[in-house]
Amino acid sequence: MSDMVKEELRLMILDFEIVTTKQLTKYPLLITHLKTLGGPEAFTHNFVGFVNTENPIVVFMNDFVVQFCEDSLNFQSENLPEFNPENYRDFINYEEDTFVIRTVSDAGRREFLRGYHREMRGNV
Known about the structure:
By secondary structure, the chain is an alpha+beta fold. The protein contains four helices and five strands, in the order ααβαββββα.
């Protein structure tokens, strides 16, 4: 992420009471909710952290996956091809009046996590 974007986001967080809709929708976001069933222990199986990629930056926040990009034209799904559906662009929030969140079923969540763990073990 460029220093300019980091600073802009930092200032938006600090001045959140005066942030405009235009500022909030300036950067493309694809947010996915992972439906997590099975009680509190099931939540401990989800990821927390980020994938060190450039475009988009991927942040795992337990049952939410946030994909952030500086530029809508460069938003790519290659970082998580097994996770993003073919129509992933339909879920990108960019200069929108309404905010769309994609939901993945519990079975889909478990399948993705198993595949991701397998892939990471293979790359170590």
